[in-house]
Amino acid sequence: MAFQVLDPTNESAPPLGQLAPRPGSLRGKTVGFISNGKEGTKGYFAHLDRMLRQEFGVANVVSRVKSNYSAPADGYIVGEIVNWDAIVTGIGD
Amino acid sequence: MLGFAATSRHHGKRTPNVQLASRTYQADDFPAVQELYHSNGWTDGLPIVPPTRDAVEACLEWAMTPPDQLLGIEPVRAQAVTAEKLAINAVMAGCLPMHFPVVLTAFAAMLQPDFLLHGATASTGGCAIFVVLNGPIRHELGASGGFNALGNSDRATAVIGRALRLALINILEVRPGGIDRSTLGHPGKFTYCVAEDQDDSTWLSLAEQRGMPKEVSAVTVMAAGAPRQLMNEWTTEPEEILETFAAEMRANLRHYSLHAGNYALIIPRQLRDHIQAAGWSKTDIAAFIHERARIPRREWADVGKGAVVRDRGDSIYPALGSADDLLVVAAGGPAGGFGAVIPPWLGPKSKAVTMAIGACVDCEPPKG
């Protein structure tokens, strides 16, 4: 017996965001960090902060931590992104 | 609140204008269907019921729901969930049309912001979706809440719980190693649904405790760890019986997480009879448990977690943020001094949600 069966997956892909233009250099730029707040992020972002300033000449690093590591970033954090030249987001389980 | 048609409103007629949008596949025979779905990663590893157009349309018609009805959008990944896709997964899980309104309502509840669906299904913590059925629909579906309540007790709870898991896998891509990052998971990730044994209990049902009218059927969803079974056959005193439940919750605070959240207590008939005979309500139970299920942080040092006690050893951590966070469920076979504690995924990050099936209990009345 032949069957005609239906696709159970979400065939409509979610809308993709557009990538912002890539900066040619990080020198003098402002980089934002969005941490999920887990323990492992502290050392990771502290090291990255030093590296970006010392090796890449980043002028400012802005660190923000989500209030809930399992939820999207808080609205006030998302609102700040427009002021940053680049962003690093990470999890630290 | 969304409302979906109750099973008793089914007219038994085919709706002529159901237009399904899903892609179709041809399979030569039943084994070919299984291989098609397994090879695409569309199953939980068990065989599925072929989701044919007729079967899916029957589910939608029973619930009087158009296929393109939007249940909600999972916000983290902006994935829409429609009734058609949910019906396909429900059929695959073994649901009959009469089960589908429960699946629709449970998934709508999971999409409420308080439930935090993405976190609950993606976390390394590996929780499952625990579902409690209340109200008259339990009888219509033959879901008893008696013997083996947390196991393979009946067809309805088995297929409803499985439908939710298959829908997560296929609609939201919650596959192990993909969105699902569970370290261990637990067997409730195949199905984790129980009907409350309201008929053998003098207590208010869970749904009533959470604000639903008695006549309304409802589902409650909770992001939950595996059940922790306990036993106390050696007393009839409510305080002593419930101290065993509180101790199991304290153990969870020590061994798993200090964070307060929703916990469920499953209390079968034997222990329930003692507690009810003493005149204790669910509210009394919750007040007692809220007081007793708490530990000082220093106890983490007793179980190998001394490194994070730091200078906060005397801080007290309750299992429940408030007594209202306890979900007391009457369920289980009639004999045996057993019970179970079902712990939260991780503290208060996901909150249990209760939603009515086939009724809109907080809608405004029509104007004019």
Short description:
The complex is a heterodimer of chains A (93) and B (368). Chain A is an alpha/beta fold.
Structural description of this entry:
The complex is a heterodimer of chains A (93) and B (368). Chain A is α/β, with parallel strands linked by helices and 93 residues long. Chain A has a domain at 30-90. Chain A has two helices and four strands. The longest helix of chain A is centred in the middle third of the chain and has 18 residues, at 39-56. Chain A is elongated and about 70 Å long. Chain B is 30% helix and 16% strand. Chain B has helices at residues 30-39, 53-62, 83-93, 100-110, 117-122, 137-141, 155-171, 206-209, 238-255, 269-277, 282-292; strands at residues 24-27, 70-74, 79-82, 128-134, 193-195, 218-224, 228-231, 263-267, 294-296, 316-318, 326-330, 338-342, 353-356. In chain B, α3 (83-93) crosses α7, α4 packs across α7 (155-171) and α9 packs across α11 (282-292). The longest helix of chain B has 18 residues, at 238-255. Chains A and B meet through β1 of A and β1, α1, β3, α3 and α5 of B. β1 of chain A pairs antiparallel with β1 (24-27) of chain B, so a sheet runs across the interface.
